[in-house]
Amino acid sequence: MADQSLIEQALKGNLIEELGLMSLAEEEKLALIRSLTDLAGLRFTTRIIERLAPLDRTEFEKMTSSVPPESAVLWLRERGIDFEEMLLEEISRLKDELRERGASLPQP
Fold this sequence. Notes:
The chain is an all-alpha fold. The chain has helices at 4-18, 26-51, 54-63, 69-78, 83-104. It has one domain. Helix 1 packs across helix 2 and helix 2 (26-51) crosses helix 5 (83-104).
């Protein structure tokens, strides 16, 4: 459900540099971003589902495969869920978690 391009854009920023991974091959960087995009999307979708009422959860699950993302975003807004804000929060959490993990790794 989450807009993959929006997630990728938010993750790319300077995350690779922040984590000290500039020496990775370009393919490895892209694979890492794809992996993080999938993880952020899964976490984000889980947060949305947790905030919805049970009947809305069922509707949301049906909707994610049958309507354009813009329609789903409008539907979420009608239920008090700010899609973009929640998405950016989740990406920020993931970045913070990665920074913390990176900082705890032994330095070469």
